[in-house]
Amino acid sequence: MNVEPTTFSAEDYFATQTPPSTLHHDVEQVKNFVARQAKEGRKVALVTSGGTTVPLELNVVRFLDNFSAGTRGATSAEYFLKAGYAVIFMHRQFSLQPFSRHYSHSTNPFLDFLEIEKDGTQVDSTPRISVTPEKREDLLEVLSTYKAVHAAGTLHSLTYVTVNDYLWLLRALSQELAVLRRNAMFYLAAAVSDFFLPRQKMSEHKIQSGKGSLHIEMDQVPKILGSVVDEWTREGFVISFKLETDPALLIPKARAALERYGHQVVIGNDLHRRKHEVVFVSRKPLPSLPPGTHPEPTTAVTNVNGDVPTRDTLSDTFVEYWLRIDIPDSTVPASQVKEIEEDIVTELVKRHSAWIQQSVASEVSR
Ligand code: 9Z3
């Protein structure tokens, strides 16, 4: 395995890596969903959610994973639906999903909500099952919304596991969503690996132990946000998330991502504070720009190690908006705890509408 590490462009990546076998089927379903939403005049949010894996072997026994339970994505999807958007929920298999997340097996196991009736009133010999009375109200609310969303056909879910699945799906879905023009929102909350092992460098079988330590050299995952914005869906409203553990890096990295990719918003979150504090980083309003375009970088913002600005000269270009909620008291029941995603989505829905109006106006005036 003495192959030099490579920096893949998006083009090289898709020319050399293999698509998931379900890609065609997934894309056909999304195509139909998008066509229906377009006909019914809905905006569509593509929500990506959960971590991506990086397999170390072709017959995969071991893999690296990125942190994310899928809470951000699943919760936000519910609020987008409530705001009247249709949602494509592209999530890591077995991560949290809208509605069922309220009854996650670890924090709120649904079996604890059920009781076997003992009063012998059942018609046949099968005991009846009922919902614990004090849980009924909450369950009814979640269940009613879930059923209404299903009846309206406004939620479409599909899964990925590896970072390779994620990249192929994101490319295909953003190409499909291009037909919606400005009515498509991209809410990229999935925790995506920065590094991967190209299949050409992977061991076919399980890596054997017994030879001492294991050295793996990974390649960098292509920065495909640039392709989303510049090629695949030039008119969509694109929001990416930036996760850091060093708070000092949050704003500089978020600004650098905006500078580099030219999309609309980066939402920065610190790992430990993410449930009650996020920061929206966006470009200060500029004189009207044609849709799908963004200003040329005004400052050199990269260093050899990645995308950290080398000097803080970007504060004139970008604006930060902090969103905070109170840290909930542990005695408040889970169903009554305020969720920061509610405020995130409210803010984004507002910005998306304003952005559509502005970009339509600037198109008309040209
Ligand atoms: C996030 O930052 C999400 O908010 C979390 C949500 C992963 C923290 P949970 O699902 O966690 O509620 O448990 N997502 C984006 C992380 C990411 O990979 N961002 C890339 C980066 O930081 C850019 S796409 O470089």
From TrEMBL:
Domain of life: Eukaryota
Coiled-coil blocks: none
Molecular-function annotations in GO: catalytic activity
Domain DNA/pantothenate metabolism flavoprotein C-terminal: 180-275
Any Pfam family hit: DFP
Example of a GO biological process term: coenzyme A biosynthetic process
Annotated family: Belongs to the PPC synthetase family.
Family annotation (PANTHER family): CORNICHON-RELATED
Name assigned to this protein: Unplaced genomic scaffold K443scaffold_99, whole genome shotgun sequence
Species the sequence originates in: Laccaria amethystina LaAM-08-1
